[in-house]
Fold this sequence. Notes:
By secondary structure, the chain is mainly alpha-helical. The termini are far apart. It has helices at about 10-25, 30-35, 40-45, 50-75, 80-95, 95-105, 120-130, 135-155, 165-185. It is built from 9 helices and no strands. The chain has one domain (about 10-185): Tetracycline Repressor, domain 2, CATH 1.10.357.
Amino acid sequence: xxxxxxxxxxxxxKTAIDIVRDKGADAINARNIASVxxxxxxxxxxxxxxxxxxxxxxVAEAERIFEEFMNKEIGKGEYPAYxxxxxxxxxxxxxxxxxxxxxYMRDRTxxxxxxxxxxxxxxxxxxxxxxxxxxxxxxxxxxxxxxxxHGIATMLAxxxxxxxxxxxxxxxxxxxxxxxxxxxxx
Length: 186
């Protein structure tokens, strides 16, 4: 008898991500994953204690995919790093609609949200590299820009509006320059 093919934790997470991309986050369940992997649900619950643990692993993988996406966008050098991070966020929402929704449009009522994340600190420091501000003001500056960028990204992720990326670039520059002028005047 041939040996059984071992289904790894990574296989399951990758399959969960593929399902999200294809059908949305609500489609992550043991049956769907087992069907794609052509196995029973046993390997899923051998690798994960429950579906919540698997969903958290899928979110962590989506975060890794986004961070890689953002670093690639920044690395292109098409925009200054801070603007590139905003453009990457918007482009990710456009190109990876369902992963974007999983990361940034899910209900977080029962989640413990850490506002002082590594990514937020990185963004705050990018602001400080360009505008002389205290930590608190740089954080506020970033939050105001991020709320604006998130609005554009959400419109693209939900196909509410379709903006040209050169127009989006101009919009972000305009808001950035306006906030910079306001914050420097404080």
